[in-house]
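Standup notes
- DV: blocked on the single-chain target, sequence here:
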Amino acid sequence: MKTYGFGVDIGGTTVKLGLFRTDGTLLDKWEIPTRKEDDGAHILPDVADAIKERIAEKAIDPSDVQGVGVGVPGPVTPEGVVRKCVNLGWGVFNVEDTLSKLTGYPVKAGNDANVAALGEMWQGAGKGATNIVMVTLGTGVGGGVIVDGHIVAGATGAGGEIGHIPVKDDETLVCGCGKQGCLEQYASATGVVTLTKRALAASDEPSSLRDLSEVTAKDTFDAAKAGDKLALEVLEQFGKILGKGLAAVACVVNPETFVIGGGVSKAGSIITDVIAKYYVPNAFHACRDAQFKLAELGNDAGMYGCVQMIL
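- DV (later): unblocked, structure below
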């Protein structure tokens, strides 16, 4: 095993890069802008340049670098082929081969949610477990599934897309994926706002949320913590939909731990408690002991997972 590895988490606005020791120690991290013009043609050359600059700056022997791991916001096949990344302007091509030619190092690529799950398993909330499901509750709902220490990517790289499990038949709003009634329409930050607005419209229940011109998911969870009755009802709805959805996931992959991350998870244990409340009675008896933990690595999880992929 060589001493160093690089983790690269490519986002729609910035690319996060980390220099690691292969024992999991983060030595340095920095960001560069994601240049999406020309169908994202500059992104990987920019990444390669940034890595070469850091190697020179730190006086690292290039032969002591294990490789580069890359997280991408879209489906990635086990061979490293990206199946269109609309956020980056990419079509279908092999990220691993392309970046390997640019850097001269071995490269492994994976979906960003999957590599974040790998990071949490390696050095975060899932440490000690080899079967975990990471759930990222942000603008959407992302998922990463790890079975026996390995990412479940699936045939076309869409394994772990738990945000698009159908959970409601009578939904009229259309999800970003084009379907209706997806889990992320209720359990994401956007989804919590939808549930809140519907609750406010459906009842005359007094609520501190009525005084706000624009409600956010944080407002709803803060109000629930303060005992606001309507906000507590929304919290229960959120927990029921997500808890039942994850009970279905557990029937397939039987995780030891669900790691809950993303912006919504900043609300804390109120989230994990309400999910577990509805998960347990809906889960198959052999899956009921799964633990619910809040993610620990924050925005760095993807970089950690990228490095774990190359080890």
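- Follow-up: The radius of gyration is 20 Å.
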